[in-house]
Structures are given as structure tokens and as C-alpha cells.
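WARN retry 2 of 3 for item q-0093 after timeout on previous attempt; input resubmitted unchanged.
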Amino acid sequence: MPQIAQLAETWSSQVFWLLVFFGITFFVIGRGMVPKVMETVAQRDSQIAADLGAAKAARDAADEQEEAWRVRENENRAAAQAIVGKAKDEAAAKSEKKLKAAQTRLDKKLAEAEDRIAEARTAALTEVEAVAAEAAQDIVSRLAGVKVTKPVATKAVKEAMTHG
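OK item q-0093 returned
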């Protein structure tokens, strides 16, 4: 059978060239290109891992700086509150001192005014006594027709004013 002999001859040639082609392809791609691709993938993986590590380190450093900033900010806030409290205390002390000085001045003026009022009252009472004594002298001389001396009238007016 010549078809089978021809088939075996053609087929063996095709198998030979198939093995040659796949062998060349295996060595070119499998031994030449695949290691380069795998090396590139490994480099990418290591670069990604390094970048992730650097990002984590940067994030940790940023967190530490933020925490330090927060601590510093809290300390500054506490110091500012202390300064404000001290200023308030000083202002209150100054105000208290000014109020005491003003109260002292007012008390002094009030005492002076009370003294003036007491003097004016005494002067007014003395004058009222004098007028009352004159009026009593006049009334007694008109009604009773008796002449009363000024010291006697003054004494009677004082007794009347004292006892009511």
C-alpha cells in the first residue's frame, strides 16, 4: 500500500519538523524569555513590597509626628490656659485693689459728709434753741406779762427739747 508508505514518510517528516520547531520554541521562549519575564515579575514584586514597606514606614513616622504634635499642642494649650488663668487672677487682684481704694475713698467722703451733717444739725439745733428761746421770751412776756431772761428761757427750751 503506497498510501500508507507515503503517509509514514510524510508523517515522519512532519513529526520531525514539529519536534524541531517545538524544541527551538522551547529553548528560545522557555530558556530565553521566560526567565527574563520571571525576573521582571520578581523585580516588580520586590519593588511593590519595598514601596509598601516605605509607605508603611512613612505612615508610622507621620503618625508619630502627629502624636508628638498633639502632645505639644496639648502642652501649649495647657500653658495658654495657665497664662489666661494667671492673667485673670492678676486682673481680679488689681480690680480688688482698685475697689478697696475706691471704697476707702468713698468711706472717707461719707465720714466727712456725716461729720458735716452732724455739724450742720448741731448748728441748726443751736439756732432752733436760740429762736425757740426768743419765742418763749416773747410769748411769756405777751401772755404773762413777765420778763424772762435769756438764760432762763434757753434752759427751759433745752429741758423741753430733751424730754420732748
